[in-house]
Design the sequence.
């Protein structure tokens, strides 16, 4: 099991930027595929972006393409989500999640395929 702690959320005006971080402890990030999800009250958890265990493959939800960038830093055992051009609709709690790297890459959309989750960091975008 890997422990995850997100940070970097906050209040930002529309058009602004935030960089979310997800510090992993207990195991190297290279043992896992990674995902960022977000959730607003009353809605299901929504996929945002994913990166594979080696950091060589990324994928994004349509809501994130062209605006968000997922990356990792092996030396810091940390995942990032750089968010630019934020919109009020991006408001929510953002979670990072891990699934073991022997899981199929193509199941990145499925929250149930992830075994470890952080506590979330809240992002609020004002208009």
Sequence:
């Amino acid at each position: 099991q890997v422990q995850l702690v997100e940070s970097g959320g906050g209040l930002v005006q529309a058009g602004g930027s935030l960089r979310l971080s997800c510090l992993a402890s207990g195991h190297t990030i290279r043992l896992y595929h990674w995902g960022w999800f977000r959730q607003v009250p009353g809605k299901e958890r929504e996929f945002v972006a994913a990166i594979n265990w080696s950091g060589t493959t990324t994928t994004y939800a349509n809501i994130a393409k062209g605006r968000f960038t997922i990356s990792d830093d092996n030396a810091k055992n940390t995942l990032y989500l750089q968010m630019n051009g934020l919109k009020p609709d991006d408001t929510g709690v953002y979670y990072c999640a891990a699934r073991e790297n022997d899981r199929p890459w193509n199941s990145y959309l499925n929250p149930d395929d992830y075994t470890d989750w952080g506590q979330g960091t809240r992002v609020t975008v004002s208009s």
The chain has no helices and eleven strands. The chain has a mean pLDDT of 96.
